[in-house]
TrEMBL record:
<keyword id="KW-0833">Ubl conjugation pathway</keyword>
<feature type="domain" description="UBC core">
    <location>
        <begin position="1"/>
        <end position="159"/>
    </location>
</feature>
<dbReference type="InterPro" id="IPR050113">
    <property type="entry name" value="Ub_conjugating_enzyme"/>
</dbReference>
<keyword id="KW-0547">Nucleotide-binding</keyword>
<comment type="similarity">
    <text>Belongs to the ubiquitin-conjugating enzyme family.</text>
</comment>
<protein>
    <recommendedName>
        <fullName>Ubiquitin-conjugating enzyme E2 2</fullName>
    </recommendedName>
</protein>
<feature type="active site" description="Glycyl thioester intermediate">
    <location>
        <position position="84"/>
    </location>
</feature>
<feature type="region of interest" description="Disordered">
    <location>
        <begin position="133"/>
        <end position="218"/>
    </location>
</feature>
<dbReference type="InterPro" id="IPR000608">
    <property type="entry name" value="UBC"/>
</dbReference>
<keyword id="KW-0067">ATP-binding</keyword>
<keyword id="KW-0808">Transferase</keyword>
<dbReference type="GO" id="GO:0005524">
    <property type="term" value="F:ATP binding"/>
</dbReference>
<dbReference type="Pfam" id="PF00179">
    <property type="entry name" value="UQ_con"/>
</dbReference>
<feature type="compositionally biased region" description="Acidic residues">
    <location>
        <begin position="191"/>
        <end position="218"/>
    </location>
</feature>
<dbReference type="GO" id="GO:0016740">
    <property type="term" value="F:transferase activity"/>
</dbReference>
<dbReference type="InterPro" id="IPR016135">
    <property type="entry name" value="UBQ-conjugating_enzyme/RWD"/>
</dbReference>
<dbReference type="InterPro" id="IPR023313">
    <property type="entry name" value="UBQ-conjugating_AS"/>
</dbReference>
Length: 218
């Protein structure tokens, strides 16, 4: 089931302009993802931020791992590129952090919601509990210095922009027009995917089927 869900999500996101995705070694459980910030007021506007996403075999019941490939100066990004963001935390409430279950991962979340949450975090850092304390302090006490550090990272990120990728520049580029939409460059055909992953039933039908199976086993 995880393979089928991820393939459907991959094909949908491959049509978007605000992200650029590909599979690593044609493995549906490992994605190369690049994000583009479309808010011109953001310090991160104009950058091309590459990351790696690794999905568990029981996705969507557990969240994927997300890590930026290049260092990115931000209060909520660890020096190794990992994110401190609630949506990627395991399901359920956490009394230690104070996070509610609704703020954390749940099976109804999808890759698109993760990526949009990451972009929102870039636009609006959470400085009360920073992963990068130095970045959080600089943002509060030296905003111009913070802006310069981000600019340096942003300029480096532009070196990762592929020659065949058209960088969007504003919010209206969130979705291509129907005429511009193209199928993703993916080696599996639709018929092969349906054979491998059991047809084209909806996610809801799959969850219903799994619930029925579980009840039968009980």
């Amino acid at each position: 089931m995880a393979e089928k869900i991820l393939l459907n999500e991959y094909k949908a996101l491959a049509k978007e302009t605000w992200t650029n995705i590909s599979l690593i070694r044609e493995n549906i459980f490992e994605w190369s993802v690049a994000l583009v910030v479309l808010n011109p007021d953001s310090h991160y506007y104009g950058g091309y931020y590459k990351a790696i996403m690794k999905f568990p075999r029981n996705y969507p019941y557990e969240p994927p791992d997300f890590r930026f490939e290049r260092p990115l100066w931000h209060p909520n990004i660890y020096p190794d590129g990992r994110l401190c963001i609630s949506i990627l935390h395991a399901p359920g409430e956490d009394s230690m952090s104070g996070e509610l279950a609704g703020e954390r991962w749940s099976p109804v979340q999808r890759v698109e919601s993760i990526l949009i949450s990451v972009i929102s975090l870039l636009d609006d850092p959470e400085v009360s509990s920073p992963a990068n304390v130095d970045a959080g302090v600089m943002l509060r006490k030296d905003p111009e210095g913070f802006k310069e550090r981000v600019r340096q990272d942003k300029e480096k990120s532009k070196g990762d922009i592929p020659a065949d990728f058209d960088m969007p520049t504003h919010e209206s580029a969130f979705r291509k027009s129907e005429a511009d939409k193209v199928e993703p460059n993916f080696s599996w055909s639709d018929s092969e995917a349906e054979d491998d992953f059991g047809g084209s039933e909806s996610d809801e039908e799959m969850f219903d089927d799994e619930d029925e199976d579980t009840e039968g086993d009980a």
